[in-house]
Design goal:
Layout: H1 10-21, H2 26-32, H3 37-44, H4 52-62, H5 66-70, H6 76-88, H7 94-115
Helix pairs in contact: 1-6, 2-3, 6-7
């Protein structure tokens, strides 16, 4: 089975990443990923598609895999939950972190294998 990519949800995914992972305004985020505010607004509303360079910049800045930013068949909320958990790990001891990392690796592997 081939992977499913859907550009219709791309703008929504980018907006979610900006607001819920990066916690940034359009102005600050557009500056961080080298876009104009107008370009970012168009991308988030699906009035325009980002360039390949912009997609890489967004994924790199948000520290998420590019394919997840563009995927339609994996529930974004599950992936973003994993990313949020990774951020929270910084506050815990090493054994706790190793346990959570094992769980996240299992979840990520299962999700990817289920969708391949």
């Amino acid at each position: 089975m081939s992977k499913i990519y859907n550009v219709d949800g791309l703008g929504k995914n980018i907006k979610y990443v900006r607001m819920n992972i990066c916690h940034m305004t359009q102005e600050k985020f557009s500056e961080a990923v080298n876009l104009s505010v107008e370009q970012l607004k168009k991308i988030e509303t699906n009035a325009s598609l980002p360039s390949i360079a912009s997609l890489f910049s967004i994924a790199d800045y948000a520290n998420i895999p590019l394919d997840l930013l563009c995927r339609d068949d994996i529930k974004a909320s599950e992936i973003y939950t994993v990313i949020t958990l990774m951020e929270e790990l910084k506050e815990h001891d090493e054994n706790y972190i190793h346990g959570i990392c094992d769980i996240m690796t299992s979840l990520y592997t299962r999700l990817r294998n289920d969708k391949l």
